[in-house]
Amino acid sequence: MAEANWYVVHTYSGYENKVKANIEKTIENRHLEEEILEVRVPMQDVVELKNGAKKQVQKKMFPGYVLIHMVMNDDTWYVVRNTRGVTGFVGPGSKPVPLTEAEMKPLGIKVENIVVDFVEGDTIQVIGGVWKDTVGVIQSMNSNKQTVMINVELFGRETPVEISFAEVKKI
Q1: What is the CATH number of the domain that holds 131?
Q2: Percent of the chain predicted with pLDDT > 90
Q3: pTM of the entire structure?
């Protein structure tokens, strides 16, 4: 399979979150989870002065742009390009250009791959995040997204939960 890279998509200004939601819904509907891995609208904390009071708010780092971590092929290009609110990929002509590691570093996007010593069917313990101290059996693994899927008991029902490799350890 081809390697996933980060691409920049130009959107109508103010439509960034709507584009993100639409792409995520399309990923789910067309089962493209293995090809379009993540959609982000980079935010930054900014202190504003309003009516003499300082207030910390989040603002978009790049208004009019959305970052997408995906494997570039005809299907993924078509899905993203034809999402309502998207005007196109950033790059010369119609050829999308992936971001380099140097360009991604200031955005806080890490590209490190975590090597794990567990496989599907192994019992693991969650060591961080919301599900800390939860024990579960790995149902599936996604090495591209660096996550595992385990079932946890929630309100008396088995519920699948996706957890990062960094937050689990093998028992």
Answers
A1: 2.30.30.30
A2: 32
A3: 0.64
